[in-house]
Design a protein that fits this description.
single chain; mainly alpha; two-stranded parallel ribbon; about 0% strand; SCAN domain-containing protein 3
């Protein structure tokens, strides 16, 4: 039909002369013909479909490699476990041939390693660009800042300490990395470390070497340190009461026979627990768990000591209120300690938690 024939009459004449068998067909029939024509297989469409399937397999390979990296599993798990599991699901649940799909998802040991290296390089490059940005104030006028409530953490790099673990060696590893990536050391505004001498030593610690190169850096130590909560600075009376609790626990737990007899007595008294918890000096907040269990079994403990150590029993009865106070106190400390741990915890959150705790106290 000529392109110039655009009016309705010409189209009807063309249909009647050239396609007489179609004159009685409705509009839906012609719409179906159009859709069939547009969906016909062409060379371009065939290549595009194959390319799309390959791209989907490549995307799946990267996503699975990321899951393997996050789980910390060996790279061989992709070929040994994940692909067989996917194949079993496709055959058993979806009833589809799995061989063609599995071939499009490369997950060999070397492939997974290469995928992880590529993704880590991309992440590192993006964060290196952020680290290179200059941080400066051009005058001393008043500034108004909008502070984000979310802080995102990401591992920038990991290097092996070849010689030793001294503060100077740690600093040189960091310095070499910053030089390699052309990141100014002056962009470091804060550093958080643990309490090891190699990190916080006054003269030879990592922080001391860092401050020699970046004078204004803010060094932050562990905020869960026991001195921050002043939990060990008890009064003489409370300290004596705590020692009485520890003596009673040791009297029962240090002897196997006493432990069994005490457990039997707890069952006879229908207690929720039948054992006391030991206190570890290094794990200082274990006092809270020890005291909570001790006070829950207080009456049973007195009954047990009545036949084993009456003097200790009388002393515990005199200090019952002190023990109850210590139990509540260390329970609060434990709650705060748990809030200061875990993922997505930063200095801003820990400061607000401690401030709220001090306000309640």
């Amino acid at each position: 039909m000529a392109t110039t024939s655009t009016n309705l009459k010409d189209k009807k004449d063309h249909l009647r002369r050239c396609h007489p068998d179609k004159t009685e067909k409705d509009f839906k029939y012609f719409q179906t013909l159009k859709d069939t024509f547009q969906k016909r297989p062409t060379l371009d469409r065939m290549f595009a479909s194959t390319s799309q399937r390959n791209d989907d397999g490549l995307r799946a390979s990267y996503n699975i490699s990321l899951l393997i990296a996050k789980s910390g599993k060996p790279h061989t798990i992709g070929e040994k476990l994940i692909l067989p599991a996917v194949e079993e699901v496709l055959k058993t649940v979806l009833h589809k041939p799995a061989s063609d799909i599995i071939k499009r998802i490369p997950l060999s040991n070397n492939t997974v390693e290469r995928r992880i290296d590529e993704m880590s390089s991309d992440i590192e490059a993006s964060y290196v660009i952020i680290c290179k940005r200059p941080i400066s104030l051009y005058n001393w006028t008043s500034q108004l800042y909008l502070i984000m409530q979310q802080i995102y953490e990401e591992l920038l790099f990991a290097r092996t300490l070849i010689t030793d673990t001294k503060g100077e060696s740690i600093f040189h590893v960091l310095k070499d990395y910053f030089i390699e990536k052309a990141i100014p050391l002056s962009n470091i505004i804060s550093v958080a470390t643990d309490g090891a001498p190699a990190m916080v030593g006054r003269y030879r610690g990592y922080i001391s070497y860092l401050k020699q190169n970046v004078s204004g850096v803010l060094a932050i130590h562990c905020v869960i340190h026991r001195q921050h909560l002043v939990a060990k600075n008890l009064s003489v009376r409370l300290h004596e009461s705590l020692n009485l609790v520890i003596d009673a626990v040791n009297r029962i737990r240090s002897n196997a026979l006493n432990t069994r007899l005490f457990a039997q007595l707890c069952e006879e008294n229908d207690e929720h627990f039948n054992q006391l918890l030991l206190h570890t000096e290094v794990r200082w907040l274990s006092k809270g768990l020890c005291l909570t269990r001790f006070f829950a079994l207080f009456e049973t403990i007195l009954e047990f000591l009545d036949t084993n150590d009456k003097i200790l029993k009388e002393n515990l009865m005199k200090r019952k209120t002190d023990i109850a106070y210590l139990t509540d106190l260390f329970t609060k400390y434990n709650m705060v300690n748990l809030q200061l741990q875990g993922d997505s915890v930063n200095l801003i959150k820990t400061k607000s938690i401690l401030s709220a705790f001090l306000a309640r106290v």
